[in-house]
Amino acid sequence: MYAQVIVDIAHSQVDKIFEYSCPPYLKAGSRVKVPFGKMLVDGFVLGVEERSSFPPEKIKPIAEIFDELPALQPECFSLMERISSRYKVPKAAALRLFLPSEMRLGKVREVYKKYAKLAHISVPISKSAKKQQQVLSFLEDKTEYDFTALCNMFGRGAVNSLAEKGAIIVEKRQIKRNPFSGMEAEVKPKTLTYMQSNAIKSIENSSKSIHLIHGVTGSGKTEIYLQIIADVIKNGKTAIFLVPEISLTPQMLSQLRARFKGEAAILHSGLSAGEKFDEWWRLRSGEAKIAIGARSAIFAPLENIGAIIIDEEHDSSYLSETAPRYSTVEVAKFRAEFNNCKLILGSATPSVESYLAATEGKYNLITLPERINKKPMPEIVIADMRKEVKRGNPSPFSAALREELDATLKSGNQAIIFLNRRGYSQKVICRDCGYVAKCENCDVSLTYHSEEDCLKCHYCGARYRMLPACPECGGVHIRYSGTGTQRVVSELSSLFPAARIIRMDNDTVSGKDGHYKILHKFAQKEADILVGTQMIAKGHDFPAVTLVGILDADMSLQFSDYRSGERTFQLITQVSGRSGRADMKGKVVLQTYCPENYILRYAVNYNYSGFFDNEIEIRKATLFPPFSLICRVMVTGEDEAKTLEALKTVYFEIEKLRNFDSKQFLFLNKMHSPVKKIQGKHRYQVLMRLKDEALLQNIYEISVAATTPYVLVYVEENPTNLS
Ligand code: ADP
Ligand code: ZN
After folding, report:
1. Which pLDDT tens digit goes with each residue over 561-612?
2. How buried is residue 11: exposed, middle or buried, by Cβ count under 10 Å (0-12/13-18/19+)?
């Protein structure tokens, strides 16, 4: 028999199918090791056939077969084709998406115990192969035997050659690790409200395959998802449930585990390699039927999918920022099509793109305008920080926020303080000469972290000692500008010495259950105030929180990005949604330097449709996405001359496209990227705004062709981060 193999080398020159001879029991989808040149490399079996078009002496045998149950299911190969042609990546790079990275390159294989048993089929073994005969008679009266022990007794060669001939079966079995054992909170299914059951009926009865649930925060979307998943499982199918960030997953997971027990499996980057491997195989083997996780869980090894749910669909984490730079919603559409199943997108603040598709009738739109039990939305009060400055208030807290904090603490409730940044302070500036401390590898300013008394680069993680004096002018008047979470915490503790305060941001969160521990502590009311960045904005449900303070609401308005209005609206709505979720009325204090801004006006009144109508008019008039496509070709490399050369080539080729079809280009230019260097790599870009997707494939092709061993060239579509 002959196997068609894709070798696990993501390079366009080996992006083809190779043939190897193989034993008859090899199945399509298996992971194998094959000789490739002078090396042994991993590969994926695309198919197995009886004949080969090559002369037999040219064909080498497969060296090793990994799993009894093929790791890749048939759908993977169909998705592989779509992904590699859509994002112009080698087939191997597309296939890698389907396997946890720990599973590749043999990182966790050894953790598993192998067992061998007789295959009970007649395979002729030559009499002269004494060792092999001995293995067979040894196994005769045993149901199975430890594979390593067998190799030690009779030699690895004999045992392997029996396995290759199919005379014995080697099986891997796992020692199961449960990543979140003991975390199951008891969650009973709720009796659905009228609105919730209507939503489910609408999803069931609609002829459309994509559904958008636009429900205000606290409208009971989660319960709808759980009910849909329960129905899908009851019908013998499987489900994928995506949430934006791992910080949310433990909370959601404990709900799902309590409800679905072992049928739910979690896939996320915070798990140990072994745990990830176990959870993945539980899904692949059919033991678990619900995959929960962030972006990459869209590639969960499930068959017969009944529903794919994407919660907080507007979240930017659903766009991959490493190759292949896929859109999760787009991949979800591929999978929904293949499985002929429903795709459900949910959000309190849908992306402008999705909401437009819904209003145009492409998606089935479901609106939940009220919270469960008609609970009022928290009142949002604007605090004008310009007046605070005039009044001589230097602290990051307005008088209004201080009063509300005081009242909240006195009543025994909890508060969340949100701000957009990390670290104690922002930049480190010399007041004498204006020198700003920057990273040596990256063109970004450093941030002071008081707990460790050091400067950190948030791009590459490099640490520097705090400067005793300015390296430029020798001056000692070094200042920190801006406010970070650490400074907020220390100011809060001097304002409210009795309050218990915890902080959650990238610096305090580490380890797989770091998020969980902090959130759990807060949920148990072991702290009164939670201070945090973006991480605390989404999804959490803390019943005792009655106050949310947003310290710098307009921070994100200052970015020169067409999406900054949308981002700001989403952020305010999401953070506000954490307040007053249970019986007590919630309040939000929103601090801003531009209270007259229209985005803030819509957000304060929870007026999504007002915001949307306004925003879509602007986008239409200015021809920004979704009425055009922003495309950036990044060109990065250590050698600046080579990088510039590649940039020139890319630009030259794209200019040719423009000369041919100038109407497609609303904008085209080449330039330094805003962050000129990251981790020692120079960064240049060709930025363009295209009328539509017509030329996109050409641009991908130009980029693939311009990539060299020294310079990386890649395409980003409507990038969320233009740094
Ligand atoms: P969303 O995901 O839309 O923000 P949640 O699903 O978190 O909202 O629901 C908000 C609150 O309402 C939660 O505390 C949840 O337990 C409660 N809830 C949801 N559905 C029901 C229901 N049918 N009956 C009673 N309470 C419900
Ligand atoms: Zn750096």
Report:
1. 788 889 889 989 988 988 887 788 899 999 988 888 889 999 999 999 999 9
2. exposed
Question: One-letter amino acid identity for 206?
Answer: S
> Of ligand 1's atoms, which has the minimum distance to the CA of residue 543?
14
Residue 231 CA to ligand 1 center (angstroms) comes to 18
* Cβ pair 224, 363 in contact under 8 A: no
Question: Rounded to an integer, what distance in angstroms lies between the CA atom of residue 451 and that of residue 300?
Answer: 40
Nearest ligand for residue 457 CA = 2
Return the residue whose CA atom lies nearest to atom 19 of ligand 1: 220
The distance from CA 70 to its chain's CA centroid, rounded to whole angstroms, is 26
501 and 527 Cβ atoms separated by less than 8 Å: yes
What amino acid is encoded at 588 in this protein? V
Listed residue (91, 87, 241) closest to 714, CA to CA: 87
Q: Look at 73 and 520; give whichever has higher pLDDT.
A: 73
- Residue 640 is inside which H or E element, if any? helix 640-660
Ligand 1 atom nearest 215 alpha carbon: 3
Residue 33: strand pairing partners: 42, 64
- Token pair, residue 91, equals 């087939």
Residue having the nearest C-alpha atom to atom 20 of ligand 1: 220
In a mutational test of the pocket of ligand 1, which residue from 541, 545, 578, 583 has the highest number of ligand atoms less than 8 Å from its CB?
Answer: 541
Helix (H), strand (E) at residue 521:
helix 514-523
- What residues contact residue 569 under an 8 Å CB cut-off, 6+ apart? 349, 599, 602, 603, 608, 611
- The Cα–Cα gap between 651 and 115 comes to 57
Q: How confident is the model at residue 422 (pLDDT cuts 50, 70, 90)?
A: very low
Lowest mean pLDDT among 103-112, 371-380, 397-406, 409-418: 103-112
Beta strands in 679-710 (DSSP E): 681-690
pLDDT per position as a tens digit, 339-355: 999 999 999 999 999 99
* Band of pLDDT at residue 178, cut at 50, 70 and 90: low
The ligand 1 atom at the shortest distance from the C-alpha of residue 372 is 12
Structure tokens given for 639: 């050698």
CA distance 497 to 491: 10
Preceding omega of 543 cis (within 30 degrees of 0): no
User: For position 374, what pLDDT does the model report?
Assistant: 87
CA of 614 to the centre of ligand 2 (A): 39
Instruction: Give the separation between CA 278 and CA 379, rounded to whole angstroms.
Output: 46
pLDDT for residue 580? 85
pLDDT digits (tens, 9 = 90+) for 293-320: 889 999 999 999 999 999 999 998 899 9
Instruction: Tell if the pTM clears 0.90, that is, is over it.
Output: no
Distance CA 95, CA 462 (A): 33
CA distance 326 to 296: 10
Q: Which of 393, 301, 360 is nearest to 67 (CA)?
A: 301
Where does the pLDDT of residue 44 fall: very low under 50, low under 70, confident under 90, or very high at 90 and above? Answer: very high
Q: For 379-422, give the DSSP string.
A: EEEEEEHHHHHHTT--SSS-HHHHHHHHHHHHTT-EEEEE-S--
Would you say how long the chain is, in residues? 723
Q: What is the pLDDT of residue 482?
A: 58
φ and ψ of 249, to 5 deg: -60, -45
Question: From ligand 2's centre to the CA of 703, what distance in Å?
Answer: 26
Q: Across residues 138-146, what is the average pLDDT?
A: 85
What DSSP state is assigned to residue 647?
A: H
Q: Is the confidence at residue 201, as pLDDT, over 80?
A: yes
Report which of 142, 137, 139, 145 is spatially closest to residue 171, judged by C-alpha positions. 145
Distance between Cα 577 and ligand 1 center (Å):
12
